[in-house]
Write a structure and sequence with these properties.
Number of strands: 0
Radius of gyration: 27 Å
Low-confidence stretches: none
Distance between the termini: 56 Å
Number of domains: 1
C-alpha cells in the first residue's frame, strides 16, 4: 500500500484520506439508518395503546420523543392532540423538517468525496505527465525509467481516484434511497396518527 502511495505522488495522500473519510461515513450511516433505529414498527401501536387506555402523559410523550426520529414526529402530534387536524399536521411537518437533516447527516460530504476523487486522480495524472516530460527534457529519451516513472505516477493516481469515487458514489446513491424510504415510511405513520387522533382510523 505504501509503495502505491509513493508511486502515485503526493496526490495519493488526499485520495487516501478521502477513502478513510468515505469508509467512516458509510459505516456510520449504514448503522444509523437501520429501520429499527429510525422508524420502529411498533411505535405507533404503542402510542395508540396509551391513548386508548388514557395513559398518555408528559413522561410517556418524552419517552416517545427520545426513542427515535419517528418518535419525535409522533410526539409532536400527540402534544397537539387536542387541537385541530391542521394544527396537528403542521406540528408533525415541522418536526419532520428537523428530522430530515439528521437522516441526511454526512451524505453531502460523501457525495463531495465521490465527486472530487476522480479530479484528484486526474491531477495526479497531470503531475505524472509533467514529471515524465520534464525528465525527457533533462535526460532525453534514452532512459526509459524516466518515462516509466511518470506514466506509473499518472496511472496510479488515476486508479486511486477511481477506486475511491466509484464505491463512494454507489453508497451515496444507496443511502439517499434508504433515507427517502424511511421518510416515506415515517410520513405514512404520521398520517395514521392524525387519523387516529380524529377518530377516523380504529385499526390497520
Amino acid at each position: 500500500m505504501l509503495d502505491l502511495v509513493k508511486a502515485g505522488g503526493w496526490v495519493m495522500w488526499p485520495i487516501l484520506l478521502s477513502s478513510v473519510a468515505a469508509l467512516a461515513i458509510i459505516g456510520e450511516r449504514l448503522w444509523s439508518l437501520q429501520k429499527k433505529y429510525v422508524s420502529p414498527t411498533d411505535l405507533l401501536a404503542q402510542a395508540r395503546q396509551w391513548l386508548q387506555r388514557q395513559e398518555l402523559d408528559a413522561a410517556r410523550i418524552n419517552l416517545l420523543r427520545d426513542s427515535s426520529p419517528l418518535g419525535r414526529i409522533l410526539a409532536s402530534g400527540l402534544v397537539n392532540r387536542n387541537h385541530s387536524r391542521e394544527v396537528i399536521k403542521e406540528a408533525i411537518e415541522d418536526a419532520g423538517r428537523h428530522v430530515i437533516p439528521e437522516l441526511e447527516r454526512y451524505l453531502r460530504t460523501l457525495g463531495t468525496i465521490a465527486a472530487i476523487s476522480p479530479f484528484l486522480g486526474l491531477l495526479g495524472t497531470v503531475f505524472g505527465m509533467i514529471q515524465m516530460f520534464s525528465g525527457i527534457g533533462q535526460h532525453g529519451i534514452g532512459d526509459p525509467s524516466v518515462v516509466a516513472d511518470g506514466i506509473a505516477q499518472a496511472l496510479t493516481a488515476t486508479a486511486g481516484g477511481l477506486c475511491v469515487a466509484i464505491p463512494s458514489l454507489i453508497f451515496y446513491r444507496y443511502l439517499r434511497g434508504r433515507v427517502n424510504d424511511l421518510l416515506l415510511d415515517m410520513e405514512s405513520e404520521a398520517l395514521k396518527l392524525v387519523e387516529i387522533l380524529h377518530g377516523e382510523r380504529e385499526k390497520d
